[in-house]
């Protein structure tokens, strides 16, 4: 019997477990892989993420290991025009956006958890709810026959979430684009001018980006409306690298091609860019009884705003905040109040998540689709003036603070299971 079971040890899963620990609840994380997953190499964390990381107590540790992103440059590959964008700092702690190794982020979060909080090689095969002693509990079955009972189950199991399917959500859909991600290493240092900046390059049907993680490592991304040759099976990283350099990005600036050339081939990944329709998030079942979702399991989105990891960390804090209000003086979740807490969490996250999914998708369309005068107008005027302000506002979201353990509500009798 567990207080909380979290399915998936990604950013959302680990972040949620840390948030619950902060409010006095231990969670068991079930991860199907043999170790922490680091697919994607790195990610940019903007202001809203640093607010969440500050609440989780790990912002200082991560900031010391990553480089700030003070501004961004968006280059039109055909016209050579460049737009400069300044990223706002966090409204709470003044933190600037930073590029972070995905592995480092996961490890820092995992270090905050008690021993044996993560059970690797644990693949769930089914989930159901039932009533015991008048209270609803969850029953999770693993592929080895293990049965785990829990007061709460949180699906943080990614785009193809088993928990989302159990809740009845429609599966994510393709955006019509695919993305390649990689990490490049320069043993003697890359020496880039404007190393504390996010560089983006847009062309018809194509978008690329890179930023420095430190003096020797650079994260890069390439997205296209077509599926690059030979990438369907993701079997040959050399083919992926060659396809990007010699075909898809051959007209991109030499600095970008040089970065791709220095790729650590073991870091290269290709995947279709998926998202969930925003109306499914607004009106779908994000929670039922004592089961809910967080991260990509709830709101998969295209990477055009760089908000996937940020919103997962927001989810973790908001969910921890609501569940923290359902704890007895004995430090146990009161099962009779858990369902209400989860419903409040889902209600709070619906509009925020649907908005991020929508704006991310539209941002990608405006930046890279079409070469007509109208699309160029949208790209240079609408995106540069209006859309950028909307994006800045979205990235300064404050997910709130967790209740202190000493200030949590108490009750004379704990009727939880």
TrEMBL record:
InterPro entries, A to Z: FAD-bd, FAD/NAD-bd_sf, MOase
GO MF annotation terms: FAD binding; monooxygenase activity
Domain FAD-binding per the UniProt entry, residue ranges: 3-358
UniProt keywords, alphabetically: Monooxygenase, Oxidoreductase
Family, similarity comment: Belongs to the 3-hydroxybenzoate 6-hydroxylase family.
PANTHER family per UniProt: FAD/NAD(P)-BINDING OXIDOREDUCTASE FAMILY PROTEIN, OS04G0423100 PROTEIN
Protein name: FAD-binding domain-containing protein
């Amino acid at each position: 019997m567990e207080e909380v079971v979290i399915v998936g040890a990604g950013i959302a899963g680990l972040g949620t477990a840390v948030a619950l620990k902060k409010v006095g609840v231990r969670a068991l994380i079930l991860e199907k892989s043999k170790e922490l997953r680091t697919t994607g190499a790195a990610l940019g964390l903007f202001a809203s993420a640093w607010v969440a990381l500050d609440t989780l107590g790990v912002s200082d540790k991560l900031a010391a290991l990553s480089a700030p992103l003070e501004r961004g440059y968006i280059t039109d590959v055909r016209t050579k025009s460049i737009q400069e964008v300044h990223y706002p700092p966090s409204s709470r702690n003044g933190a600037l956006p930073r590029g972070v190794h995905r592995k480092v982020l996961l490890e820092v979060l995992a270090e905050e958890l008690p021993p044996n909080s993560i059970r690797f090689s644990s693949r769930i095969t089914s989930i159901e709810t039932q009533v015991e002693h008048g209270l609803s509990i969850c029953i999770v079955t693993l592929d080895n026959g293990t049965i785990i009972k829990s007061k709460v189950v949180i699906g943080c199991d990614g785009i193809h979430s088993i928990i989302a399917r159990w809740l009845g959500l429609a599966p994510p859909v393709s955006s019509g684009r695919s993305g390649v991600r990689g990490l490049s290493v320069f043993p003697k240092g890359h020496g880039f001018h404007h190393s504390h900046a996010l560089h983006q390059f847009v062309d018809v049907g194509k978008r690329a980006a890179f930023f420095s993680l430190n003096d020797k490592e650079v994260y890069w991304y390439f997205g296209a409306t077509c599926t690059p040759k030979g990438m369907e099976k993701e079997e040959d990283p050399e083919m992926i690298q060659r396809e990007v350099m010699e075909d898809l990005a051959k007209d991109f600036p030499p600095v970008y091609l040089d970065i791709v050339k220095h790729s650590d081939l073991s870091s290269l990944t290709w995947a279709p860019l998926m998202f969930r329709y925003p109306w499914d998030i607004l009106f779908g079942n994000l929670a039922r009884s004592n089961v809910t979702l967080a991260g990509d399991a709830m709101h998969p989105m295209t990477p055009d705003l760089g908000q996937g990891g940020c919103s997962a960390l927001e989810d973790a804090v908001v969910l921890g905040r609501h569940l923290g209000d359902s704890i007895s003086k004995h430090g146990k979740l009161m099962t009779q109040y858990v369902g209400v807490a989860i419903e409040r969490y889902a209600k709070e996250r619906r509009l925020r998540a649907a908005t991020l999914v929508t704006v991310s998708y539209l941002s990608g369309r405006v930046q890279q689709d079409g070469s007509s005068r109208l699309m160029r107008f949208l790209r240079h005027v609408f995106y540069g003036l209006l859309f950028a302000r909307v994006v800045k506002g979205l990235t300064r979201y404050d997910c709130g603070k967790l209740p202190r353990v000493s200030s949590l509500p108490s009750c004379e009798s704990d009727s939880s299971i």
